Amino acid sequence: MEYTKNNSHNNILGVESSCDDTSAAVLVNGKICSNVIASQKVHEEFGGVVPEWASRKHQQNILPTVKSALSKANLNLQDIDAIACTQGPGLMGSLLVGHTFVKGLSMSMEVPFVNINHLDAHVLAHFIDEEIPPLPFLCLLVSGGHTQIVLVKENYQMQILGKTMDDAAGEAFDKAGKMLGLSYPSGPQIDQLAKKGNPNAFKFNTPNVGGLDYSFSGMKTSILYFLQKEVKKNPNFIDENIYDLCSSIQRTIVSYLLFNLNRAIKETGVNSIGIAGGVAANSELRCSLKKLARNTGSEAYIPKFEYCTDNAAMIAFAGKIKLEQKQFGKLTDVCYTRK
Ligand code: KG4
Ligand code: ZN
Question: What is the dotted CATH code of the domain comprising 135-303?
Answer without folding.
Answer: 3.30.420.40
